[in-house]
């Protein structure tokens, strides 16, 4: 894929960096969603659950180290937001419990997660800084450009890291191959000398 095509693809991804999903959650069940997100990225979420008498749903957002970023008991409708401290895997879990252990209907869960440029509320920014519509659009394009640059910098760093790893692995494989060959040559030489002495002892050869 050419650089230009990849840039166009990345811009399209960033412009549509919104994830909206819906699913059903049975009583006494737990469902989790996971996603990897870069460092210093704003993440926002809107959730809404259908009514289900006798059921209580716990919403929990954590990172890979089990640090709680957001927690809500008896969640029905609301929003959450956090900023990532590092590149990490984040998990959003919904767990429903039925009081008294009885059976009940499934709950419909609607979740919309935004991150990066799409997570920012430019209307509030415009009001706070008294920006004109054109200035707001320029701010949005500036943030989008910065996000693209950061993504390219991250991919370049990952590429360099993978290249260093490959070079290190190749060097280790080469050293191991040389060591193995030396061991095989040494073992073969020892076998020849041992057999020669053995046959001489048995007076089978001069």
Keywords:
single chain, 206 residues, alpha+beta, four-stranded antiparallel sheet, 32% strand, elongated, disordered N terminus
Order of helices and strands: HEEEEEEEEHH
Distance between the termini: 70 Å
Mean pLDDT: 82
Helix content: 40-55%
In terms of DSSP E residues, the strand content is 25-35%
What is the 3D shape? elongated
Largest sheet: 4 strands, antiparallel
Question: Strand order within the widest sheet?
Answer: 1-8-3-6
Please identify the structural class as seen in this structure: alpha+beta
Based on CA atoms alone, the radius of gyration comes out at 30 Å
Number of helices: 3
Multimeric status of the protein: single chain
Q: Please report the total strand number as a whole number.
A: 8
Low-pLDDT runs: 1-16
Describe this protein's structure.
The protein is α+β, with helices and mostly antiparallel strands. It is 44% helix and 32% strand. It contains 3 helices and 8 strands; from the N terminus they run H-E-E-E-E-E-E-E-E-H-H. It has helices spanning 3-15, 122-129, 133-201; strands at 18-25, 29-37, 42-49, 55-62, 68-72, 77-83, 88-98, 107-115. The strands form 2 sheets. The chain has a 4-stranded antiparallel β-sheet with strand order 1-8-3-6, with no helix packed on it. Helix 2 (122-129) crosses helix 3. The radius of gyration is 30 Å and the shape is elongated. Residues 1-16 have low confidence and may be disordered.
């Amino acid at each position: 894929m050419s650089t230009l095509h990849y840039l166009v693809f990345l811009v399209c991804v960033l412009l549509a960096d919104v994830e909206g999903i819906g699913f059903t959650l049975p009583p006494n069940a737990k469902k989790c969603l996971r996603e990897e997100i870069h460092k210093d990225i704003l993440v926002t979420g809107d959730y809404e659950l259908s009514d289900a008498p006798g059921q209580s749903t716990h919403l929990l957002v954590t990172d890979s180290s089990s640090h709680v970023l957001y927690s809500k008991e008896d969640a029905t409708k609301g929003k959450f937001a956090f900023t990532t401290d590092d590149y990490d895997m984040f998990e959003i879990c919904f767990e429903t419990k039925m009081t008294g252990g009885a059976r009940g209907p499934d709950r419909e869960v609607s979740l919309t997660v935004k991150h990066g440029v799409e997570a920012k509320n430019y209307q509030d920014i415009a009001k706070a800084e008294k920006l004109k519509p054109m200035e707001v659009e320029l701010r949005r394009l500036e943030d989008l450009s910065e996000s693209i640059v950061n993504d390219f910098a991250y991919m370049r760093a990952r590429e360099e890291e993978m290249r260093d790893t490959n070079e290190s692995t190749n060097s280790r494989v080469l050293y191991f191959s040389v060591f193995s060959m030396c061991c095989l040559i040494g073992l073969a030489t020892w076998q020849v000398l041992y057999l020669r002495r053995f046959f001489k002892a048995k007076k089978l050869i001069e």
